[in-house]
Design a protein that fits this description.
This protein is an all-beta fold. It has a single domain, classed as Methylamine Dehydrogenase, Chain H (7 Propeller), CATH 2.130.10. It has one helix at residues 3-10, and strands spanning 11-17, 26-30, 33-37, 60-67, 70-78, 82-90, 93-100, 111-120, 123-133, 137-143, 146-152, 168-173, 178-184, 189-197, 200-207, 212-217, 222-228, 233-241, 244-251, 256-261, 266-272, 277-285, 288-295, 297-299, 304-306, 309-316, 319-327, 331-339, 342-349, 361-366. A hairpin with a 2-residue loop joins strand 10 and strand 11 (146-152). The longest helix has 8 residues, at 3-10. This is EPTP domain-containing protein. One of its GO terms (biological process) is signal transduction. Keywords: Repeat, Signal.
């Protein structure tokens, strides 16, 4: 069977979501239902020349509700320059952390405030505000009855000096709010990923210009275990298979790499795809484990080339086998969820081929 035919067989397109510069997709389920949050970077400004870092960033993040097999508009949160939403729960309390990279319509301000909301009486109520600089992603994780929020942030722009803290960092929950816990050396953070394996705790950190790293918990804090010096770090994902711990690392400038942990280091075992990989979504389907490699752009921010497809791999015999690709448009994220026994996939698209923000994101039925 041809690769494109098999790729088409794995996904059935169900719904187009009218997003603008979508940067992430966050699916979460509460006693109120299943929801989809979509942070948006910007909307197009009439008459403005195409520029992926232009536009009007004073925009909101729509939150859709799942209803009768599709997403319907439900509510929205103010989120200028939206990059991420992270849903998590602590002791039955429901939280949504949001992050935006900037405010304004040009010139832009990279010193912003990230907000932690709590769901109270059917509304998202601001609980805490964090001064941030070039904020990208929140990552919530817990172990040993401790709860952490990782903030990936920072950017290097000529002539811009941050007023807010610029380092990526961890905050810890003290029972009422998150307090500073640990900072990481890095100037352009994108992503944290956490895993517990073999009685140890590991935290990976992706950075665009300062090198990425895997860190191990020493009982008091996370200390470096292994570093990856190349530029372009975007995302990490961990998973277990065949009794071993595996790690995927997406590098926007090179390729995505599969690593296997040998007990001391993560050893590279496979290279997946080429430049443009931005995010990774692992799916446990009916037919096995799949990987969606979300592809964004190549080139530079001033001269970007939109990658027109993302890829689907299937886990087989200790490696990922490419089984299909599907049309996307500067895709930024993917999220999978199950409803009534059927698995679905949502993908955020951020730019059109003409470098315009107004680009639909897509809901698919996943058939694997």
């Amino acid at each position: 069977m041809a690769r494109t035919e098999l790729g088409a067989g794995l996904l059935t397109r169900l719904q187009a979501l009218p997003t603008s510069g979508a940067r992430a997709v966050e699916v979460f389920t509460t006693d109120e239902g299943t929801f989809l949050g979509v942070p948006q970077l910007a909307r197009d400004v009439p008459g403005e020349a195409p520029y992926m870092n232009g536009g009007d960033s004073d925009i909101e993040a729509p939150i859709y509700r799942w209803q009768d097999g599709r997403f319907v508009e439900h509510e929205a949160l103010p989120l200028p320059g939206g990059e991420d939403l992270e849903y998590f729960e602590i002791d039955g309390r429901r939280f949504l952390a949001v992050a935006g990279i900037r405010t304004g319509k040009g010139p832009y301000d990279l010193d912003t405030d990230a907000v932690l909301y709590e769901r109270i009486a059917g509304a998202w109520v601001p609980l805490q505000s964090f001064p941030v600089f070039g904020a990208k992603q929140w990552t919530a994780f817990s172990f040993d009855s401790r709860h952490f929020l990782g903030l990936s942030q920072g950017v290097v722009v000529d002539g811009v000096e941050p007023k807010h803290p610029r380092e990526s960092c961890l905050f810890e929950w003290n029972g009422e709010r998150f307090v500073p816990f640990q900072t990481f050396n890095g100037k352009w953070g994108y992503n944290f990923a956490f895993v517990s394996f073999g009685g140890e705790h590991y935290l990976a950190y992706a950075d665009h210009v300062s090198g990425s790293s895997v860190n191990r918990w020493n009982g008091e804090k996370f200390i470096p275990l292994q570093t990856f010096e190349e530029n372009g770090g975007r995302a990490f994902r961990f998973f277990e298979a065949d009794g071993a711990l595996w790690m995927l690392h997406a590098n926007l400038l090179k390729h995505t790499t599969l690593y296997r942990f040998d007990g001391a280091q993560f050893v590279g075992t496979q290279m997946l795809g080429g430049p443009g990989g931005r995010e990774l979504c692992l799916i446990d389907g009916k037919e096995g484990r799949y990987l969606v490699r979300v592809c964004f752009i190549t080139g530079t921010p001033k001269a970007p080339v939109v990658v027109p497809q993302s890829e689907i791999f299937r886990w087989r015999d200790g490696c990922f086998e490419l089984v299909g690709d599907f049309a996307t448009s500067a895709a930024t994220d993917a999220a999978s969820f199950v409803d009534d026994g059927q698995r679905y996939l949502v993908v955020s698209n951020s730019l059109s081929e003409e470098i315009r923000f107004r680009t639909d994101s897509t809901l698919y039925r996943f058939n694997g």
